[in-house]
């Protein structure tokens, strides 16, 4: 943590000037009971107990002893430590237009959001359709991009994953985006974390929608044999 030292040059110059002026100062009518003042502009009172100041930086102040005034001077001249204010931490942005990362991950502003309870094929994942390779991962990305294009999303945080990223349920108006992706066949119910979308998955499977028209490996199994780079 960075520290900033501040030095009171004004007070230092006052005290330094008083020292240069000598250990004593001329007596005035206000000091008739005590004689001259010392370099701090103070004196030990003869009539009343205590150390009184009539000039200088402590004018009008009273101390029990001269040492108290000297201690205060030392404290005022010592460098003061001040903590630099920390920049406020950005709050997660959970509403707005989304940028698509992959079939189950979006960004709103700087906030990365994983869609809760669903798992879509990875962007690079390949499925088999009519005996040929089919870029089902890219198709899932296209489907999510189409569903969110020029629309404002509202997300409700459900959890935080092991990487500290937000896991949320997102809505386009009253339509739940998580359920929509599963019902259209572009994502599977991620039963390891939630059973909320099992029925939506069954609807997609019966309709042979999205992934269900092809032969595919579940995304969580795909990742086990093909380590992914961070998105």
Residue windows where pLDDT falls under 50 for at least 5 positions: 1-7, 20-32
Structural class, by secondary structure, is: alpha+beta
Second CATH tier, the architecture of the largest domain: Beta Barrel
Order of helices and strands: EHEEEHEEEEEEEEHEEEHEHH
Number of domains: 2
How much of the sequence is in beta strands? 25-35%
Give the CA-based shape. rod-shaped
Radius of gyration: 37 Å
- Helix-residue proportion: 25-40%
- CATH structural fold name of the largest domain: OB fold (Dihydrolipoamide Acetyltransferase, E2P)
Number of strands: 16
Mean pLDDT, nearest integer?
Answer: 83
- Main beta sheet strand tally, sense and closure: 7 strands, mixed
Q: Mind telling me the CATH class of the largest domain?
A: Mainly Beta
Distance between the termini: 31 Å
Number of helices: 6
Summarize the SSE layout with pairings:
Elements lengths: L2 E4 L2 H13 L20 E3 L6 E3 L8 E2 L2 H12 L2 E4 L11 E3 L1 E4 L2 E4 L2 E5 L2 E2 L7 E3 L2 E3 L1 H13 L3 E9 L5 E7 L2 E2 H7 L4 E2 L8 H9 L12 H7 L6
Parallel strand pairs: 9-14
Antiparallel strand pairs: 1-5, 2-3, 3-4, 6-13, 7-8, 8-9, 10-16, 11-12, 13-14, 14-15
Helix pairs in contact: 4-5
Explain this structure to me?
Helices cover 26% and strands 26% of the residues. The longest helix is centred in the first third of the chain and has 13 residues, at 9-21. The chain is built from six helices and 16 strands. The protein has two domains: 3-83, no CATH class; 95-225, OB fold (Dihydrolipoamide Acetyltransferase, E2P), CATH 2.40.50.90. The strands form five sheets. Strands 6, 7, 8, 9, 13, 14 and 15 form a seven-stranded mixed beta sheet that branches. A three-stranded antiparallel beta sheet has the order 2-3-4. The protein has a two-stranded antiparallel sheet with strand order 1-5. The protein is of the alpha+beta class and 231 residues long. β7 and β8 (105-108) form a beta hairpin.
């Amino acid at each position: 943590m960075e520290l900033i030292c501040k030095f009171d040059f004004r007070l230092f110059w006052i005290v330094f000037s008083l020292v240069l002026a000598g250990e004593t100062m001329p007596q005035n009518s206000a000091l008739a009971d005590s004689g001259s003042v010392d370099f701090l502009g103070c004196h030990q009172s003869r009539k009343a107990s205590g150390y009184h100041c009539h000039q200088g930086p402590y004018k009008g102040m009273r101390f029990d002893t001269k040492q108290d005034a000297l201690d205060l001077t030392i404290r005022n001249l010592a460098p003061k430590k001040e903590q630099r204010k920390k920049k406020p931490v950005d709050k997660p942005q959970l509403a707005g237009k989304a940028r698509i990362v992959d079939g189950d991950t979006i960004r709103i502003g700087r906030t990365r959001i994983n869609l809760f309870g669903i798992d879509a094929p990875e962007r690079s994942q390949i499925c088999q359709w009519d005996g040929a390779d089919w870029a089902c991962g890219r198709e899932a990305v296209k489907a999510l991009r189409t569903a969110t294009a020029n629309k404002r999303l509202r997300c409700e945080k459900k959890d935080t994953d092991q990487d500290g990223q937000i896991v949320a349920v997102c809505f386009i108006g009253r339509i739940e985006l998580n359920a929509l992706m599963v019902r259209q066949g572009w994502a599977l119910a991620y039963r390891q974390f939630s059973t909320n979308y099992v029925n939506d998955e069954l609807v997609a499977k019966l309709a042979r929608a999205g992934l269900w028209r092809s032969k595919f490996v579940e995304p969580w199994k795909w990742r086990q044999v093909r380590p992914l780079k961070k998105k």
